[in-house]
Amino acid sequence: MAQDTLSFSVSIRDRVSATGIESENDNIVNVPITIIVLDENDNPPEFQNVPYETEVLENAQPGTTIFDGILVTDRDTVGENLDMSCIPQPQNPDACEKFTIEVTESQQDRLTAAVVLRQPLDYNDRMIYQVLLDASDGLYNASAGLEIHVRDVQNAPPVFQGSLAAVINEDSPIGTLVMTIQARDGDRGQPRKIVYELVTNPMDYFLLDKHTGELRTAKPLDKEALPDDTGLIILTVKAREVVDGVPGNDNLTVASTQASITIRDVNDSPPMFNKTEYFVSLSENTAPGTPLPLEISVRDPDVGENAEFALRLNDVSHVFDVEPKLVTGSSQISIRVANGTLDYENPNQRKFIVLLVAEETKTNPKLSSTATLTVSITDANDNRPLFEQDSYSTTVSETAHPGQLITTITAKDLDSGLYGDQGIRYSLSGTGSELFSVDAITGAIAVADCPRGAEGGPAAGQVLQRRRRQIPTRSDLQHEQPPQLNASARSGVEYMTYRIVNSGESNEYHDVNVIAPPTIATLYDSFETTPIPESAEMEPRGSGPSTTTLRPEPPHTNDIEHPRQPVGPGKAPCLDYETQSVYYLSYRATDDEGRGQTSVVSVRISLLDANDSPPVCESPLYRASVDEGATAFEPPLIIKARDPDVVSEINYRIIGNEAVTRHFEIDKRTGQLTISKTVALDVNHLKSENVFFGVEATDGLYTTLCNVNITIRDVNNHAPQFGRENYLTSIEENFPIDTVVERLQAVDLDTGINAEIRYRIQQGSFDDFAVDNRTGVVSIARKLDFDRRNTYQMEIVASDSGTPSLSGTTMLTVSIINSNDKAPYFTPTTQRAEVSEDAAIGTLVHTLVAVDPDVASSESLDYAATEPITAVDKNGKEVGEMEDFKDMFMIDRSGKVFVNRRLLRDSFAVIRITVLVTDTTAPSIQQGEGLLIITITDVNEEPPVSA
């Protein structure tokens, strides 16, 4: 700005003459006028004393000031203080990282700065840096360049160049050039000369010329003499810079490295075995492919093709083989039995002498060596006993007494002595083998004694045997002594009382007395022992406390307990056709007195029946599953009992309460169970999915009870239903996310998976609410806003997991309660007003305007002035904090702004007041801030004055 004030004078003349012509008598008034020109930021900064250039030593320490002559000026006096920064350039990407700009003085119209080193320099990496400087006054920018030259310092040791690896034949003559070692001074500004030194020289094989770096052989080479089989020699070489004619001796003038030289092998060694003779003994029954227990190795110290050789056996018998066939360098060797059978009984196969040969394959001449292998054969038990037949069958009556001979089975062995027939021992094994005995030497098979305790029934103080069948039913089987017990016991007949408990329409039960023979399952039952008290006596049922009642433990099992009658041949646990009619056993012959080889054949012993068996259920529990409303079992359900006696004819009858007999029927001849045509199956009517009952099977003399379990599968024929068609609730808009809004619950009359309900929101939530698909709990999913939406009508669907799935719906209406959670704000944020300089105290200048979305009346808003309050004078300059201007205006609580005291425009032309609006009804402080700018306009206070 060239001039900040313009001054001039305005003259006022009145004409006295009636003619209107100017005369000396006219009255003239001169009025001086001054116009203040306010400065604006309209000029860019300017760099002075450019161009900038400097230099720095490469060993300068970070923090060193390398240039301090930067000066920037700005013709404007307003705006922000000048600032300076470094601008990265593609050609110098790290310049702003290596150097930093430190501003030493910053004003609106002047800035001085210095360039300081931030990171270490290296002349070898970069010799010149171009730094682009950028100066800014907040609105305009200017730039200038600084060129920094890096001066080299002798601080880098020598650097080796080229390859430091070579290969040379081991038969090379003395003085052969191996390689030329080259190095240069790491400082490229004024490089020094280099001399070389050989620090380590294994075997003293080489010489190094200190001036030229030529490395040559000093004596004959021998690869096999080296500790490393690869022929690798590592040399350490040192390079020294020549300083003032003397080789240096510090870290800045000396460098070391390693050179690798590989001595190429020349074929001068044959492959060698670790021994010249090997001895081993083998059993004649050694299997083909078995390796000999020998530690054999072979090695050729040469390398490459010179160390490749083949292995072979000179073996006229062709019994043995060697592995591997081809070797490079060295290897362990395995000799195996290749083919043929070793036989000690053949005199020609008791000893083998084999020549082992190793011969090179790719050399000329082919060097080789040999070793001798002696193998001795020892005798072994290599023949097993042989039976004349693959299997044997025989029969015996179930009533045969212990000791009765059944059959005799023998075997032959081609070996002699104890390895042959003389040493054969016989044995019998398998399920039920304890019921038979065998002579170990003669092979005679006879009936064995019954298991201990089988002869005669248990007396007082002895034990009962409990036959337990694990059947997962809900039946209780109760064993009580009927009035006919004494007579039936004398005739060998046992009675059981079955208590049938039904899970259908009622829990009624009734007792059924039937003869209780074992079922098929008892063939695999375990036995438990229960002591019989000595005071226990057999008395008629209902005779009082002495009546014996045995109940099953635990529930859901069938326990049959009764004293065993005197038994012998034909009764379990002796041979019993009804218990087991055929025994499949393993008959074993072992030579060497039972310690040698073994042969096994199967022996089938069939029992001849004596007619004495009751019916037996083919399954301990019959199961079937049907759907609700089904009319037939698919596949058909047939209750089957069998009687080992061929003359018996079995009839079937359902044992159960009225609920069972009303829903199910059975064919008395075939045992096929069917669903009654007159009653439909319904889980809700039966009040259970499982129905348990018994089917009586009788051959006219003996009776048994077969257990039946019918599972009725639920059909998905009920849709979920909510307790109400509509749910109403309300929540405040400031409730947090995950707050529970409502708990919905639907009921499905089906069972199982058909009653598993999943909930979802069909529509109306606008993603602001979520429902737990398992519990039906509706919760807030994201922040609510009354001003955005104040009512939600959501359709909630409950679907079951049946196929096809059924569903029910309800409506959930949620009303949002408004919360005072938004702060008031000025509109506009910056408000302006003007007032004449001569305005009287109390004059209304402006009324502040603010709004609050949460309040309906402006009376809830409270206005006030707050810091900062600033001003500028008539020249546009900021007024200091100490000036007395902050109380010129007063703001009341309603937002009205009044003149508070006499206005002084010359000192305070514009006043900026920070204003604050507060919501007085908010639960916590809610305020908005704005700016009120009041411009005081000038008033012509001076009258015209005569010149």
Helix content: under 10%
Q: Give the total of beta strands.
A: 73
Silhouette: flat
Which parts are unreliable, with pLDDT below 50 for 5 consecutive residues or more? 454-565
Number of domains: 7
Q: What is the gyration radius calculated from CA atoms? A: 59 Å
- Classify the fold: give the CATH topology of the largest domain: Immunoglobulin-like
Number of helices: 5
Helix vs. strand class: mainly beta
> Termini distance?
33 Å
The chain-level mean pLDDT equals: 81
Beta percentage is 35-45%
CATH class of the largest domain: Mainly Beta
The major sheet is characterized as: 5 strands, mixed
CATH architecture of the largest domain: Sandwich
Q: CATH homologous superfamily name of the largest domain?
A: Cadherins
So what's the oligomer here?
single chain
Subcellular location: Cell membrane
Function: Cadherins are calcium-dependent cell adhesion proteins. They preferentially interact with themselves in a homophilic manner in connecting cells.
Domain Cadherin: 48-160, 160-273, 274-387, 388-617, 618-722, 723-826, 827-946
InterPro entries: Cadherin-like_dom, Cadherin-like_sf, Cadherin_CS
Short description:
The protein is mostly beta strands. The chain is 3% helix and 45% strand. The chain folds into 7 domains: 46-151, Immunoglobulin-like, CATH 2.60.40.60; 159-264, Immunoglobulin-like (Sandwich); 272-378, Cadherins (Immunoglobulin-like, Sandwich), CATH 2.60.40; 386-448 and 579-608, Immunoglobulin-like (Sandwich); 616-713, Cadherins (Immunoglobulin-like); 721-817, Cadherins (Immunoglobulin-like, Sandwich), CATH 2.60.40.60; 825-937, Immunoglobulin-like (Sandwich).
